[in-house]
Amino acid sequence: MSDGTGSASGTAEALAAAPASGGAIRSAHRGKDRGGRGRGRGPVAKLRQLGIGTSWPAKVSWVFLIAIVLVALVGPLLISADPVRQTSSAMLPFGSPGHLLGTDDLGRDELARLVHGARPLLFVAFASTALAAVIGTGVGLLAGYAGGVVEQVLMRVVDLALAFPSILLVILLVAAAGPGTTSLVVGVGVSLAPGLARLARALAARETARDYIVAARLGGTRTPRVLVQEILPNIAGPMVAQVVMTLSVAAGFAAGLSYLGLGIQPPTPDWGYMVQAGQEFLYSAPRLVVLPATLTLLFVVACNFVGDDLRDALDPKGTV
Question: What's the predicted TM-score (pTM) here?
Protein backbone atom coordinates (compact mmCIF):
# COMPACT_ATOMS: atom_id res chain seq x y z
CA MET A 1 0.00 0.00 0.00
CA SER A 2 1.39 3.41 -0.88
CA ASP A 3 1.48 6.20 1.68
CA GLY A 4 -0.18 9.62 1.36
CA THR A 5 3.09 11.33 0.41
CA GLY A 6 3.64 9.06 -2.56
CA SER A 7 0.05 9.53 -3.71
CA ALA A 8 0.28 13.32 -3.52
CA SER A 9 3.60 13.28 -5.35
CA GLY A 10 2.20 11.12 -8.12
CA THR A 11 -0.83 13.38 -8.47
CA ALA A 12 1.37 16.46 -8.71
CA GLU A 13 3.52 14.82 -11.37
CA ALA A 14 0.42 13.83 -13.35
CA LEU A 15 -0.98 17.34 -13.22
CA ALA A 16 2.33 18.78 -14.32
CA ALA A 17 2.52 16.40 -17.27
CA ALA A 18 -1.11 16.91 -18.30
CA PRO A 19 -1.99 19.62 -20.85
CA ALA A 20 -3.39 22.85 -19.54
CA SER A 21 -7.16 23.06 -19.28
CA GLY A 22 -9.26 25.43 -21.34
CA GLY A 23 -9.71 27.77 -18.37
CA ALA A 24 -5.96 27.90 -17.75
CA ILE A 25 -5.28 28.61 -21.39
CA ARG A 26 -7.88 31.40 -21.47
CA SER A 27 -6.39 32.90 -18.28
CA ALA A 28 -2.93 32.83 -19.83
CA HIS A 29 -4.24 34.54 -22.95
CA ARG A 30 -5.96 37.19 -20.84
CA GLY A 31 -2.71 37.78 -19.00
CA LYS A 32 -0.86 38.20 -22.28
CA ASP A 33 -3.51 40.57 -23.54
CA ARG A 34 -3.15 42.74 -20.43
CA GLY A 35 0.62 42.73 -20.87
CA GLY A 36 0.30 43.68 -24.51
CA ARG A 37 2.06 40.53 -25.73
CA GLY A 38 -0.98 38.42 -26.67
CA ARG A 39 -2.47 38.01 -30.09
CA GLY A 40 -5.11 40.46 -31.29
CA ARG A 41 -8.66 39.84 -30.23
CA GLY A 42 -10.35 42.07 -32.79
CA PRO A 43 -12.59 40.80 -35.60
CA VAL A 44 -9.74 40.82 -38.14
CA ALA A 45 -7.56 38.67 -35.88
CA LYS A 46 -10.44 36.24 -35.31
CA LEU A 47 -11.01 35.92 -39.06
CA ARG A 48 -7.32 35.21 -39.58
CA GLN A 49 -7.45 32.51 -36.93
CA LEU A 50 -10.26 30.90 -38.91
CA GLY A 51 -8.15 31.10 -42.05
CA ILE A 52 -10.35 33.71 -43.74
CA GLY A 53 -8.77 36.49 -45.77
CA THR A 54 -5.22 35.13 -45.69
CA SER A 55 -4.35 35.84 -49.35
CA TRP A 56 -4.34 39.29 -50.92
CA PRO A 57 -6.99 38.44 -53.61
CA ALA A 58 -9.29 37.28 -50.81
CA LYS A 59 -8.64 40.43 -48.76
CA VAL A 60 -9.34 42.72 -51.72
CA SER A 61 -12.47 40.74 -52.60
CA TRP A 62 -13.82 40.90 -49.05
CA VAL A 63 -13.24 44.67 -48.90
CA PHE A 64 -14.85 45.24 -52.30
CA LEU A 65 -17.85 43.02 -51.51
CA ILE A 66 -18.49 44.74 -48.19
CA ALA A 67 -18.06 48.16 -49.84
CA ILE A 68 -20.60 47.33 -52.56
CA VAL A 69 -23.12 46.14 -49.98
CA LEU A 70 -22.64 49.34 -47.97
CA VAL A 71 -23.06 51.45 -51.10
CA ALA A 72 -26.29 49.64 -51.93
CA LEU A 73 -27.63 50.11 -48.40
CA VAL A 74 -26.62 53.69 -47.51
CA GLY A 75 -25.39 55.15 -50.81
CA PRO A 76 -28.82 56.32 -52.01
CA LEU A 77 -29.23 58.23 -48.74
CA LEU A 78 -26.00 60.15 -49.35
CA ILE A 79 -26.57 61.05 -53.00
CA SER A 80 -28.83 64.05 -53.44
CA ALA A 81 -29.20 63.78 -57.23
CA ASP A 82 -32.32 62.10 -58.58
CA PRO A 83 -31.27 59.09 -60.72
CA VAL A 84 -34.41 59.19 -62.90
CA ARG A 85 -34.80 62.96 -63.33
CA GLN A 86 -34.18 64.00 -66.94
CA THR A 87 -32.49 67.35 -67.59
CA SER A 88 -31.21 69.29 -70.57
CA SER A 89 -27.59 68.69 -69.50
CA ALA A 90 -27.14 65.58 -71.63
CA MET A 91 -23.85 63.74 -72.20
CA LEU A 92 -21.80 65.85 -69.82
CA PRO A 93 -18.25 64.41 -69.43
CA PHE A 94 -16.36 63.38 -66.28
CA GLY A 95 -15.81 66.11 -63.73
CA SER A 96 -18.65 68.36 -64.85
CA PRO A 97 -19.90 70.80 -62.18
CA GLY A 98 -22.48 69.00 -60.06
CA HIS A 99 -21.99 65.76 -62.01
CA LEU A 100 -18.79 63.99 -60.99
CA LEU A 101 -19.21 61.15 -63.50
CA GLY A 102 -21.15 63.19 -66.05
CA THR A 103 -24.66 62.53 -67.35
CA ASP A 104 -26.24 60.12 -69.79
CA ASP A 105 -28.10 60.82 -73.03
CA LEU A 106 -31.19 61.96 -71.07
CA GLY A 107 -29.29 64.24 -68.72
CA ARG A 108 -29.51 61.89 -65.71
CA ASP A 109 -26.65 61.97 -63.23
CA GLU A 110 -24.40 58.96 -63.86
CA LEU A 111 -23.05 58.69 -60.32
CA ALA A 112 -26.55 58.69 -58.86
CA ARG A 113 -27.64 56.00 -61.31
CA LEU A 114 -24.64 53.81 -60.46
CA VAL A 115 -25.22 54.14 -56.72
CA HIS A 116 -28.98 53.57 -56.95
CA GLY A 117 -28.47 50.78 -59.48
CA ALA A 118 -26.48 48.67 -57.02
CA ARG A 119 -29.47 48.03 -54.75
CA PRO A 120 -31.81 46.30 -57.27
CA LEU A 121 -29.03 44.10 -58.61
CA LEU A 122 -27.83 43.06 -55.17
CA PHE A 123 -31.38 42.50 -53.94
CA VAL A 124 -32.12 40.13 -56.83
CA ALA A 125 -28.77 38.38 -56.39
CA PHE A 126 -29.11 37.87 -52.63
CA ALA A 127 -32.82 37.01 -52.70
CA SER A 128 -32.53 34.50 -55.54
CA THR A 129 -29.46 32.92 -53.94
CA ALA A 130 -31.32 32.59 -50.63
CA LEU A 131 -34.24 30.96 -52.45
CA ALA A 132 -31.89 28.58 -54.25
CA ALA A 133 -30.16 27.72 -50.96
CA VAL A 134 -33.44 26.92 -49.21
CA ILE A 135 -34.78 24.77 -52.06
CA GLY A 136 -31.49 23.09 -52.94
CA THR A 137 -30.40 22.38 -49.38
CA GLY A 138 -33.83 21.07 -48.42
CA VAL A 139 -34.09 18.72 -51.38
CA GLY A 140 -30.49 17.56 -51.03
CA LEU A 141 -30.79 16.93 -47.29
CA LEU A 142 -33.94 14.86 -47.71
CA ALA A 143 -32.53 12.87 -50.63
CA GLY A 144 -29.21 12.13 -48.95
CA TYR A 145 -30.80 11.13 -45.65
CA ALA A 146 -33.75 9.11 -46.94
CA GLY A 147 -31.99 7.23 -49.71
CA GLY A 148 -33.80 4.56 -51.70
CA VAL A 149 -36.81 5.51 -53.78
CA VAL A 150 -37.07 9.00 -52.30
CA GLU A 151 -33.50 9.80 -53.31
CA GLN A 152 -33.97 8.37 -56.78
CA VAL A 153 -37.11 10.39 -57.46
CA LEU A 154 -35.76 13.67 -56.12
CA MET A 155 -32.40 13.38 -57.84
CA ARG A 156 -33.94 12.45 -61.19
CA VAL A 157 -35.93 15.68 -61.01
CA VAL A 158 -32.72 17.53 -60.17
CA ASP A 159 -30.90 15.86 -63.07
CA LEU A 160 -33.74 16.82 -65.40
CA ALA A 161 -33.40 20.47 -64.31
CA LEU A 162 -29.62 20.32 -64.76
CA ALA A 163 -30.07 18.99 -68.29
CA PHE A 164 -31.22 22.45 -69.35
CA PRO A 165 -28.62 25.23 -69.61
CA SER A 166 -29.14 27.46 -66.59
CA ILE A 167 -29.46 30.69 -68.55
CA LEU A 168 -32.04 29.11 -70.87
CA LEU A 169 -34.05 27.87 -67.90
CA VAL A 170 -33.94 31.34 -66.33
CA ILE A 171 -35.10 33.00 -69.54
CA LEU A 172 -37.98 30.52 -69.92
CA LEU A 173 -39.15 30.99 -66.34
CA VAL A 174 -38.90 34.80 -66.42
CA ALA A 175 -40.49 35.05 -69.87
CA ALA A 176 -43.39 32.87 -68.73
CA ALA A 177 -44.02 34.93 -65.59
CA GLY A 178 -43.33 38.30 -67.21
CA PRO A 179 -40.48 40.74 -66.55
CA GLY A 180 -40.11 42.17 -63.06
CA THR A 181 -38.26 41.80 -59.81
CA THR A 182 -40.40 38.98 -58.39
CA SER A 183 -40.25 36.81 -61.48
CA LEU A 184 -36.53 37.46 -61.77
CA VAL A 185 -35.88 36.33 -58.19
CA VAL A 186 -38.01 33.20 -58.59
CA GLY A 187 -36.56 32.33 -62.00
CA VAL A 188 -32.92 32.72 -60.97
CA GLY A 189 -33.50 31.00 -57.63
CA VAL A 190 -35.21 27.95 -59.12
CA SER A 191 -32.60 27.60 -61.87
CA LEU A 192 -29.70 27.65 -59.39
CA ALA A 193 -31.25 25.31 -56.81
CA PRO A 194 -30.37 22.00 -58.57
CA GLY A 195 -26.63 22.59 -58.30
CA LEU A 196 -26.89 23.21 -54.57
CA ALA A 197 -29.18 20.20 -54.21
CA ARG A 198 -26.57 17.84 -55.64
CA LEU A 199 -23.89 19.12 -53.27
CA ALA A 200 -26.24 18.94 -50.28
CA ARG A 201 -27.22 15.36 -51.18
CA ALA A 202 -23.58 14.25 -51.37
CA LEU A 203 -22.76 15.87 -48.04
CA ALA A 204 -25.91 14.57 -46.35
CA ALA A 205 -25.34 11.02 -47.62
CA ARG A 206 -21.80 11.11 -46.19
CA GLU A 207 -23.02 12.30 -42.79
CA THR A 208 -25.94 9.84 -42.71
CA ALA A 209 -23.50 6.93 -42.76
CA ARG A 210 -21.64 8.18 -39.68
CA ASP A 211 -22.10 6.59 -36.28
CA TYR A 212 -23.72 9.56 -34.55
CA ILE A 213 -26.50 9.68 -37.12
CA VAL A 214 -27.02 5.92 -36.91
CA ALA A 215 -27.24 6.23 -33.13
CA ALA A 216 -29.72 9.09 -33.38
CA ARG A 217 -31.94 7.11 -35.72
CA LEU A 218 -31.81 4.01 -33.54
CA GLY A 219 -32.65 6.19 -30.55
CA GLY A 220 -35.92 7.22 -32.18
CA THR A 221 -34.99 10.83 -33.01
CA ARG A 222 -37.49 12.30 -35.45
CA THR A 223 -36.33 12.90 -39.01
CA PRO A 224 -36.76 16.71 -39.00
CA ARG A 225 -34.65 16.98 -35.85
CA VAL A 226 -31.92 14.76 -37.30
CA LEU A 227 -31.82 16.82 -40.49
CA VAL A 228 -31.83 20.26 -38.83
CA GLN A 229 -29.92 19.67 -35.61
CA GLU A 230 -27.50 16.92 -36.57
CA ILE A 231 -26.75 16.87 -40.30
CA LEU A 232 -27.24 20.50 -41.31
CA PRO A 233 -24.67 21.99 -38.88
CA ASN A 234 -22.06 19.49 -40.07
CA ILE A 235 -22.46 20.34 -43.76
CA ALA A 236 -22.90 24.09 -43.26
CA GLY A 237 -19.26 24.95 -44.04
CA PRO A 238 -19.06 23.63 -47.62
CA MET A 239 -22.63 24.73 -48.30
CA VAL A 240 -21.96 28.34 -47.21
CA ALA A 241 -18.92 28.50 -49.47
CA GLN A 242 -20.90 27.16 -52.43
CA VAL A 243 -23.80 29.53 -51.75
CA VAL A 244 -21.45 32.53 -51.85
CA MET A 245 -20.06 31.34 -55.19
CA THR A 246 -23.64 30.86 -56.41
CA LEU A 247 -24.22 34.52 -55.53
CA SER A 248 -21.86 35.52 -58.34
CA VAL A 249 -23.85 33.45 -60.84
CA ALA A 250 -27.10 34.99 -59.63
CA ALA A 251 -25.69 38.50 -60.07
CA GLY A 252 -24.55 37.66 -63.58
CA PHE A 253 -27.97 36.28 -64.46
CA ALA A 254 -29.72 39.32 -62.99
CA ALA A 255 -27.55 41.75 -64.96
CA GLY A 256 -27.85 39.71 -68.14
CA LEU A 257 -31.62 39.50 -67.99
CA SER A 258 -31.87 43.22 -67.28
CA TYR A 259 -29.73 43.78 -70.36
CA LEU A 260 -32.18 41.68 -72.37
CA GLY A 261 -35.14 43.63 -70.96
CA LEU A 262 -36.43 40.73 -68.83
CA GLY A 263 -35.16 41.96 -65.47
CA ILE A 264 -35.46 45.24 -63.60
CA GLN A 265 -37.66 47.52 -65.65
CA PRO A 266 -36.91 51.20 -66.41
CA PRO A 267 -36.94 53.87 -65.17
CA THR A 268 -35.47 52.07 -62.12
CA PRO A 269 -31.67 52.30 -62.50
CA ASP A 270 -29.96 48.94 -62.85
CA TRP A 271 -26.42 48.11 -63.93
CA GLY A 272 -27.54 45.58 -66.54
CA TYR A 273 -30.05 47.93 -68.12
CA MET A 274 -27.52 50.78 -67.99
CA VAL A 275 -25.15 48.73 -70.17
CA GLN A 276 -27.93 48.10 -72.67
CA ALA A 277 -29.00 51.75 -72.73
CA GLY A 278 -25.43 53.03 -73.09
CA GLN A 279 -24.20 50.69 -75.82
CA GLU A 280 -25.51 53.10 -78.46
CA PHE A 281 -22.89 55.58 -77.25
CA LEU A 282 -20.07 53.08 -76.80
CA TYR A 283 -17.63 55.07 -78.95
CA SER A 284 -18.72 58.61 -78.13
CA ALA A 285 -19.26 58.06 -74.37
CA PRO A 286 -17.80 54.66 -73.38
CA ARG A 287 -18.18 55.46 -69.66
CA LEU A 288 -21.93 54.78 -69.96
CA VAL A 289 -21.10 51.13 -70.67
CA VAL A 290 -17.70 50.64 -69.04
CA LEU A 291 -18.66 51.82 -65.54
CA PRO A 292 -21.71 49.60 -64.89
CA ALA A 293 -20.17 46.64 -66.74
CA THR A 294 -16.94 46.91 -64.72
CA LEU A 295 -18.80 47.11 -61.41
CA THR A 296 -20.84 44.03 -62.30
CA LEU A 297 -17.74 42.13 -63.36
CA LEU A 298 -15.85 43.07 -60.19
CA PHE A 299 -18.78 42.01 -58.03
CA VAL A 300 -18.94 38.61 -59.74
CA VAL A 301 -15.18 38.09 -59.46
CA ALA A 302 -15.17 39.17 -55.79
CA CYS A 303 -17.92 36.68 -54.96
CA ASN A 304 -15.87 33.88 -56.53
CA PHE A 305 -12.73 34.78 -54.59
CA VAL A 306 -14.70 35.09 -51.34
CA GLY A 307 -16.36 31.72 -52.01
CA ASP A 308 -12.97 30.10 -52.61
CA ASP A 309 -11.65 31.68 -49.43
CA LEU A 310 -14.58 30.40 -47.38
CA ARG A 311 -14.26 26.94 -48.89
CA ASP A 312 -10.58 26.74 -47.99
CA ALA A 313 -11.32 27.94 -44.45
CA LEU A 314 -14.48 25.93 -43.73
CA ASP A 315 -13.63 22.75 -45.65
CA PRO A 316 -9.80 22.68 -45.71
CA LYS A 317 -9.60 18.94 -46.43
CA GLY A 318 -11.81 19.24 -49.51
CA THR A 319 -13.81 16.27 -48.41
CA VAL A 320 -16.38 16.80 -51.15
Answer: 0.79
